[in-house]
């Protein structure tokens, strides 16, 4: 299988745009897209037959496929539209209140922080943070930070952990973190948004109470396709955000999630075709062999061309398919400065810079403000090649030259 420009024609991507931000929204293969369109046509041609007679069997078949892919029992797995929906299902079902705390981190995803603080407002729970320092020196330092918080705060009922953080992109020692949480008798919800297709998954062996992850980022499924894994002991407790007409309460768990109104569930039923595509181009081993090398070279290229530096991380915490590189200081695009001690919003998108790079140079990238400076997050997928990042470096170098002419 030839990657790079050769395989790009097999994706539903704008041929005039360079995409180096696969981690945000993924990219859909043409054959998966066409398969889904076929399902939509069947649904619309006979809606009653689709929802009353077809949907249940397709759900079960698709769950079986994903369960095998992720190392899960089918009975512990349900579909949700995104990791954010899965996290909301768990947090809103636990009925925590005043006197209870949830532990997250300064690297937790935006929507996770927002959900937690909305529950804080509604239910009176306390949100506690592990404030991860810059730079983080080692995995051991991170483990110690979590253990210290658990020792200090007996009110913590649940710990929300990432496998791979979004910004900065970091591979966390999640099984060791879960072990620490278990030591103190805490529930664990794992945000695995970037897990399926990216890192090896064995959900039954993870040791968590709950796991949710997106199938559309690195496993090539359509958007609106994610999974929620729930330990057997919580099957009757974790309910979907929407109570649909297949709701069985504490009965068969999957039925509670089956119908969220007469929605379009074809992304769920296309996941088997996505997994076939993933395996057909080499599976995790083949994809990582190409893309891990590519994203490393891309990051080194930008560091050299822009005369900046990599986001400082222990080598064993680098993600396989993402890197973060410091941007040169640009007067036109200043980073957001966060007051000392403020951990709720340590990460900010730099949308103006992203839009300028897209509109002027035809490149879709992710620029962020983290730790009081501007960075660019790089991703590599099979349709990328080193020339994509050379063009990105050229674009940023142009902005730097123009910025030097701006009078302060």
Summarize the topology.
Elements: H1 5-8, E1 18-19, H2 22-25, H3 30-45, H4 47-70, E2 77-80, H5 83-93, E3 101-105, H6 110-123, E4 126-130, H7 139-152, E5 156-162, H8 174-183, E6 187-191, H9 203-206, E7 210-214, E8 226-230, H10 253-258, H11 266-269, H12 271-280, H13 283-306, E9 322-326, E10 347-349, H14 351-361, E11 363-364, E12 366-370, E13 373-379, H15 386-403
Parallel strand pairs: 1-11, 3-4, 3-5, 5-6, 6-7
Antiparallel strand pairs: 2-8, 7-8, 9-13, 10-12, 12-13
Helix pairs in contact: 3-4, 5-6, 7-8, 13-15
Give the structure's gist in a few sentences.
α8 links the parallel β5 (156-162) and β6 (187-191).
Q: How many β strands by DSSP?
A: 13
Average pLDDT reading: 94
The total count of helices amounts to 15
- The radius of gyration is 22 Å
- Assign an overall shape: globular
Assembly category: single chain
Unreliable runs: none
Tell me the series of helices and strands, N- to C-terminal: HEHHHEHEHEHEHEHEEHHHHEEHEEEH
Task: Write up this protein.
- It is a single chain.
- This protein is an alpha/beta fold and 408 residues long.
- It is 43% helix and 15% strand.
- It is built from 15 helices and 13 strands.
- It has helices at residues 5-8, 22-25, 30-45, 47-70, 83-93, 110-123, 139-152, 174-183, 203-206, 253-258, 266-269, 271-280, 283-306, 351-361, 386-403, and strands at 18-19, 77-80, 101-105, 126-130, 156-162, 187-191, 210-214, 226-230, 322-326, 347-349, 363-364, 366-370, 373-379.
- The strands form 3 sheets. The chain has a 7-stranded mixed sheet, with helices on both faces. The protein has a 4-stranded antiparallel sheet with strand order 9-13-12-10. A two-stranded parallel ribbon has the order 1-11.
- A hairpin with a 2-residue loop joins strand 12 and strand 13 (373-379).
- Helix 3 packs antiparallel against helix 4 (47-70), helix 7 runs parallel beside helix 8 (174-183) and helix 13 (283-306) packs parallel to helix 15 (386-403).
- The longest helix has 24 residues, at 47-70.
- The protein is globular and about 65 Å long.
